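Appendix B, example 12.
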Amino acid sequence: MRILIADDHDLLRDTLIAFLGAEGGIEVGSAASFDEARERIESDDAYNLVLLDYKMPGMNGLESLTEAMQMKGGQRVALISGQATREIAEQALSLGAAGFVPKTLPAKSLVNAVRFMAMGEQYAPIDFMTAQEEVEQHPLAQRLTKRELEVLKGLSDGKSNKEIARDLDLTEPTVKLHMKTLYRKLEVNNRTQAAIVARDAGLF
């Protein structure tokens, strides 16, 4: 079984490679951008599954997903993301993606999901596909705007302002402004405290 992991976060990509590589019968290739993934799909032996990060250099959302799926007569491609919404996951699945994998998925579950998709099945975790509705009803979530929630999610994932800005297509000063509003609404003084409040509230 051959898997290609395309993600620009080195730590996450290396962790996935280590976990999947430790499994018997899985060969893992890697790419750090969509352009690099495209080159590997074209030049390497066929992959059973391609995992594309929804937000990485060169990646144009669902358009790039569709492009990758059509390469070399057809590819099994799944999205992996820490930012994409349930709506995006549903759209990807409706386009024929092999699946949608949140980056919050435990390593063992991720390995099982990859095997499942590589064998021809479609995968999306039930809890993720239903969790958005629960978050919207949470009292704390109701006090925050959609954008503030997205910034808080990035912050809770341990991302820097620069990474959050890139993922949300914002400027860093704008992210900093959202941070200030978040701190005030959450009654905290720093990003660590904000992440703790979000975690304790079960937002993410």
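The first strand starts at residue 2 and ends at 6. Residues 2-127 form a domain with the Rossmann fold fold (CATH 3.40.50.2300).
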